[in-house]
């Protein structure tokens, strides 16, 4: 399980647009101050509670939220399609359930003020429009999924399961058996970075089967590089959902990590256990001390991509994403910690 959940309903013709904008992706941060975006977060959770007892609730929710209403009702909650009366009754039962109501109260307590969250999404949207000016940034909708999804992404919306970002000390996560290492990533500060990475992985999904470890590592590195471009003011540790000490451990042990990958001949291995141990979420990375974080392969992939882009300043973000030759990226990066 990843620290963000996502639904991949989106299928965008990205092959047609990868080369449309060849903007520079150097180390300088672009000036996005003049880019106008609307990142007002719509509160579906509040509207659902307020409208569901009204006779025309379904029609009003469908009219206001469109595809998100359909996704929330039939894919996230998995309510069986039926008449408006049947669907309305199922939604009413969900909203009025005592446990769901309790979670809703916790959401409102944590997210009294949405302005900081909206500022984070504004940064994302402005940089997205800078790098992809031909694209439309979707509406942002918040909801209570009752621990079904953290982030749901489709062509017309970004759905935020605020119940999955209540803070690591929320008692609900212990109640549902959420592992401690994952609870640490359920803080509100991780919501926007998780959305950006979820967006990237929805737009450019990984092909796992038969892919070598190097390919997977570089793909993950691209996702982190992308996130750093969309959120240039966000610390690396927050983008990675690492603690500062975990990030420092990676920096201090970079050569050690890389040496292990080389000695174990992992780069061209298709052994799924390597993905799990070094790219997947876990309490720690297998074979390293307890203070080593998980996903150290993701961090290494990011370093390789950073060096590749520094060595190729003429390359755009779109060109990086379109480059499928992971070995070429490694070789041209000159990466040797």
Shape annotation: globular
Side-by-side strand order of the widest sheet: 1-2-4-3
Round the mean pLDDT to the nearest integer and report it: 90
- Please report which band the strand proportion falls in: under 5%, 5-15%, 15-25%, 25-35%, 35-45% or over 45%: 5-15%
Question: Spans of 5+ residues with little confidence (pLDDT < 50)?
Answer: 1-27
Q: How is this structure best described in words?
A:
A hairpin with a 2-residue loop joins strand 3 (151-154) and strand 4 (157-161). This protein starts with 40 loop residues before the first strand and ends with a helix. The chain has 337 residues and is mostly helical. It folds into two domains: 14-203, no CATH class; 213-333, no CATH class. The protein has a four-stranded mixed β-sheet. The chain is built from 17 helices and four strands.
């Amino acid at each position: 399980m990843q620290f963000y959940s996502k639904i991949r309903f989106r299928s965008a013709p990205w092959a047609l647009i990868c080369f449309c904008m060849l903007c520079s992706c150097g180390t300088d941060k672009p000036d996005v101050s003049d880019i106008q975006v609307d990142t007002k977060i719509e509160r579906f959770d509040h509207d659902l509670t307020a409208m569901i007892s009204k006779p025309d609730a379904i029609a009003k929710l469908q009219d206001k939220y469109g595809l998100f209403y359909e996704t929330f009702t039939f894919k996230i909650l998995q309510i069986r399609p039926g008449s408006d009366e049947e669907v309305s009754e199922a939604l009413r039962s969900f909203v009025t359930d005592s446990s769901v109501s309790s979670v809703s109260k916790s959401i409102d307590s944590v997210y009294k003020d949405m302005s900081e969250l909206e500022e984070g999404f504004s940064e994302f949207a402005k940089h997205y429009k800078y790098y992809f000016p031909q694209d439309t940034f979707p509406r942002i909708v918040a909801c209570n999924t009752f621990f079904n999804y953290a982030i749901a992404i489709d062509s017309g919306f970004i759905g935020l399961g605020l119940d999955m970002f209540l803070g690591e000390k929320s008692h609900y996560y212990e109640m549902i058996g959420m592992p401690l290492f994952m609870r640490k990533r359920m803080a509100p500060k991780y919501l926007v970075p998780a959305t950006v990475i979820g967006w990237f992985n929805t737009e450019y999904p990984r092909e796992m089967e038969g892919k070598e470890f190097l390919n997977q590592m570089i793909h993950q590195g691209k996702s982190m590089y992308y996130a750093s471009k969309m959120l240039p003011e966000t610390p690396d540790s927050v983008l990675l959902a690492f603690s500062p000490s975990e990030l420092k451990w990676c920096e201090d042990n970079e050569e050690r990590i890389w040496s292990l990958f080389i000695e174990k001949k992992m780069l061209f291995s298709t052994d799924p256990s390597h993905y799990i141990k070094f790219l997947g979420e876990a309490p720690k990375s297998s074979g390293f001390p307890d203070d080593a974080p998980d996903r150290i392969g993701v961090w290494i992939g990011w370093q390789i991509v950073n060096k590749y882009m520094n060595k190729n300043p003429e390359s755009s973000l779109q060109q990086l994403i379109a480059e499928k030759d992971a070995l070429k990226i490694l070789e041209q990066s000159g990466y040797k910690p």
